[in-house]
Amino acid sequence: MKPRVSLQDSALRNGNFSLRIDPVRSEDVGLYEAQVKYKTEVRSCHVELGVITVTLSPPSPVIVNDLLLMSCNSSHRASLVETCWFHNEHLDSTSRTFCSLSGTLSILHPVMSDVGSWRCQLRYSDKEIISATFNLQVLGFDGPTSPVVYAAAGSAAD
Questions:
Q1: Which of 21, 84, 137, 153 sits in a 20 to 30 Å window from 116, CA-based?
Q2: Are residue 43 and residue 69 in the same domain, yes or no?
């Protein structure tokens, strides 16, 4: 897993034996064991790493008006009950929420207003709730609805 894995040397002296994985990949899922030996004592702990993935089809960049499928999956073993997608959550009145039984959201004709923060939230039969956030970028033009723009002579026009 090198060079994605590191230990904080300065934290080791303070008893912090945390492992950092950056970036996390789907194949990193599983049970991890930390074992610390000091003199005659041996201490260990187990941590299970689960991974949630968000995929775009087609992959980035997303083009205005092309069909977009956003999928959200997790390594969690329980049955998926519901998937909710939140767009620009808590930012303003344009925030939107979509919920379904599957982990996929279809946007038939993405537009510039679809740009921004998206969070998928997976709810499972064992009451576990897992979420991931990503930033969607869409390539296209966000201009006036009319193709004609008037500007006063001597001023700037966008």
A1: 21
A2: no
Mean pLDDT across 74-88: 93
Domains identified in the chain, total number = 2
Single out the residue of 81, 49, 55, 86 nearest to residue 68, CA to CA. 55
3-class secondary structure per residue, the chain: CCCCEEECHHHHCCCCCCEEECCCCHHHCEEEEEEEEECCEEEEEEEEECCEEEEEECCCCEECCCCEEEEEEECCCCCEEEEEEEECCCCCCCCEEEEECCCEEEECCCCHHHCEEEEEEEEECCCCEEEEEEEECEECCCCCCCCCCCCCCCCCCC
* Domain assignment of residue 2, yes or no: no
Q: What is the pLDDT of residue 154?
A: 92
- Structure confidence by residue, pLDDT tens digits, 96-138: 788 887 778 998 889 888 888 999 999 999 999 999 998 999 9
Mark whether 69 and 42 lie in a shared domain: no
State which residues form the domain around 135. 52-139
Co-location of 107 and 33 in the same domain: no
